[in-house]
């Protein structure tokens, strides 16, 4: 009987229709939006509409899972990313026009700069508008032009009223801040009842002489009158109105769909893509404007999963919004925070006890890059492939690892080599289908260079499908490029397996070589010095019995043969830049000063206990300061090689995509 019942139930399960796509619960803020949402739901049956009273109530409901998504402007993208919501942008709107560049417009004649605004009368398009208030005031506070210590000191509006001699800021409370309405010609409302309301009104306020500077969007100055006006630039200079792209306070980011960090963004995007653009970006039929989406949008763009509010908004806008809420940022104190990516690195960093340097832990180089961008850390030493990624995110190389210290000033470089065991039968010609050992995903020697040398521009070729299996720490744990990884050595429950840090025994140069030496893999892609550094009694305990003569090199120039490991000069895959310390431009001076102070004890800095290459390469003898640009440091030839691999491999890393949208 039980068997019969189970069989019947099994048949019922098979007969049931397959589960439909996940329902997307959209949050709307008005009855008009609700009407439009219900219309869109007829085009995409997985769309469900939920009415709330405000943007903030919607954000709360998304956080709790009551709803899933909504579209917001840039200021609310910032707010949604804060700790009380922890939401992220998942889809961006695209437009055919440029978003508002907030500019400071002045008459051509008076001779003053952005640094001389105190005591001047000002005109603003509207209170709380991007061009007239949030972007210009946020940027001026962030850059310490308008002094304000934050809401505990006084309200921002009061600080602004103390800064300008008089103003017209339509929409602000005339009763609370009469001085900020003093230059107005009406009721100081953001409406037709105020002559100086909006961009056009702010311009008229300036033109009539009621103000000496107008804060507005770049396109608010009539083209017929632009020759009589100029823009104030943040560097203290002036430019013509037409040169707004080189002289603006902030640029307004695009509106974005926000959701929870763990939300299925692909599913939300798929549901929206079922709806015709003509329906998504049209609101007139529902009694409003810009309902759910901007009417001026032309399409929706899915964002990389790594994107958060900081990456989406960019540093200048994000920091200006932070200054608008919290006041002037503290002045740099000369201290730096070094980013570490493993427990062993953190231990070494702490033990150094370097004055003015603290240690900040992250899970990977990519997370360190993001922390440095956000000013949650200041520096880390990385390889060339990672210098490229950091450069695309606005960071700069400031010091280079040197293996030979000279006064010549030429930065170190090294050869990338493919190492095999002697008499293994592995040659460049027989490489396909073998087991491979890599320093890490998207790293120089371990990934970018061999990917370029092996796949070049061959369609559909990737290191994933070229080799049968391998260990490339940082790769997808479910992929064949994590199969050979060893982790920390635990038998079960090893979260370190294939992790891009020294917690994975096969991570880095020494890890990739160990992977080969222990016969886990058949070829290792590493730096040319590694074989010599880890054999003939020079290496750690696991390498004590290794002989240098037991390892050889293979290369495209000698496809049928192997050569001695010392012949890297004629048998290599590429010559690439050395590892470098990366930081933000504003932290360059402090990072260089701190590292120069510890240069007197290099043994302490470049020696690793227990593990190898912690914080810096163990072979480093000194650090050399560099003022080269990213392109000069890496060379165009090497940059081209990296970018070619993106076309044939798995595409650009998500962090590069997020930083270059």
UniProtKB/TrEMBL annotation:
Residues 24-326, 336-643 form the Transferrin-like domain. It comes from Carassius auratus. Residues 1-15 form the signal peptide. It comes from the Eukaryota. It is found in: Secreted. The gene is TF. Monomer. This is Serotransferrin. Disulfide bonds join 27-58, 37-49, 123-205, 168-184, 181-188, 233-247, 339-368, 349-359, 393-659, 437-515, 471-485, 482-498, 555-571. Fe(3+) 1 binds at residues 73, 255, 383, 579.
């Amino acid at each position: 009987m039980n068997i019969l019942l189970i069989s019947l139930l099994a048949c019922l399960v098979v007969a049931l229709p397959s589960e439909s796509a996940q329902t997307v619960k959209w949050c709307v803020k008005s009855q008009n939006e609700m009407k439009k949402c219900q219309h869109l739901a007829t085009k995409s049956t997985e769309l469900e509409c939920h009415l709330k009273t405000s943007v903030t109530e919607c954000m709360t409901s998304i956080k709790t899972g009551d709803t899933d998504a909504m579209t917001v402007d840039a200021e609310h993208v910032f707010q949604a990313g804060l700790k009380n919501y922890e939401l992220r942008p998942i889809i961006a709107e695209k437009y055919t026009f440029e978003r508002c560049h907030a500019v400071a417009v002045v008459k051509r004649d008076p001779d003053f700069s952005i640094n001389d605004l105190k005591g001047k009368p000002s005109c603003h398009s509207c209170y709380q508008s991007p061009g007239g208030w949030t972007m210009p005031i946020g940027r001026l506070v962030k850059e310490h032009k308008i002094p304000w210590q934050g809401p505990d000191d006084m309200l921002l509006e009061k600080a602004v009223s103390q800064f300008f001699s008089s103003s017209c800021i339509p929409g602000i409370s005339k009763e609370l801040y009469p001085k900020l309405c003093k230059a107005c010609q009406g009721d100081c409302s953001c409406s037709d009842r105020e002559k100086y309301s909006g961009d056009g009104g702010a311009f008229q306020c300036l033109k009539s002489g009621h103000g000496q500077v107008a804060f507005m969007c770049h396109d608010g100055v009539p083209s017929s009158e632009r020759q009589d006006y100029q823009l104030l630039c943040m560097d203290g200079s002036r430019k013509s109105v037409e040169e707004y792209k080189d002289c603006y306070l902030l640029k307004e980011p695009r509106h974005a769909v926000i959701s929870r960090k763990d939300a299925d963004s692909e599913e939300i995007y798929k549901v929206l893509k079922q709806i015709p653009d003509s329906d998504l970006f049209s609101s007139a039929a529902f009694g409003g404007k810009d309902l759910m989406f901007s009417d001026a949008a032309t399409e929706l763009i899915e964002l990389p999963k790594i994107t958060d509010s900081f990456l989406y908004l960019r540093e200048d806008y994000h920091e200006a919004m932070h200054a608008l809420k919290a006041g002037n940022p503290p002045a740099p104190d000369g201290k730096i925070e070094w980013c570490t990516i493993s427990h062993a690195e953190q231990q070494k960093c702490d033990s150094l006890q370097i004055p003015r340097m603290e240690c900040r832990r992250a899970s990977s180089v990519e997370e360190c890059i993001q922390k440095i961008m956000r000013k949650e850390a200041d520096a880390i030493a990385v390889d060339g492939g990672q210098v490229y990624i950091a450069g695309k995110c606005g960071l700069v190389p400031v010091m280079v690892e040197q293996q030979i210290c000279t006064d010549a000033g030429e930065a170190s470089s090294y050869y990338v080599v493919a190492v095999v065991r002697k008499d293994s039968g592995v040659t460049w010609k027989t490489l396909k289908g073998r087991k491979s050992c890599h320093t890490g995903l998207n790293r120089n020697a371990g990934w970018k260079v061999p990917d370029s040398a092996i796949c070049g521009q061959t369609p559909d070729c990737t290191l994933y499908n070229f080799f049968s299996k391998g260990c490339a720490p940082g790769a997808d744990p479910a992929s064949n490029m994590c199969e050979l990884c060893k982790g920390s050595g635990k038998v079960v429950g090893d979260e370190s397996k294939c992790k891009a840090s020294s917690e994975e025994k096969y991570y880095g140069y020494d890890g990739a070589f160990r992977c080969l030496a222990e016969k886990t893999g058949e070829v290792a892609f590493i730096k040319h010095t590694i074989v010599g550094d880890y054999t003939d009694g020079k290496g750690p305990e696991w390498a004590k019995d290794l002989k240098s003569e037991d390892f050889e090199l293979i290369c495209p120039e000698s496809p049928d043969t192997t050569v001695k490991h010392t012949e890297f000069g004629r048998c290599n895959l590429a010559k690439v830049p050395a590892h470098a310390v990366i930081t933000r431009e504003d932290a360059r001076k402090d990072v260089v000063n701190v590292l120069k102070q510890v240069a007197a004890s290099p043994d302490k800095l470049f020696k690793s206990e227990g593990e190898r290459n912690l914080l810096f390469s163990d072979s480093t003898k000194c650090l050399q300061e560099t003022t080269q640009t990213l392109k000069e440091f890496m060379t165009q030839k090497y940059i081209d090689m990296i970018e070619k691999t993106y076309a044939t491999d798995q595409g650009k890393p998500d962090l590069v995509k997020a930083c270059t949208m």
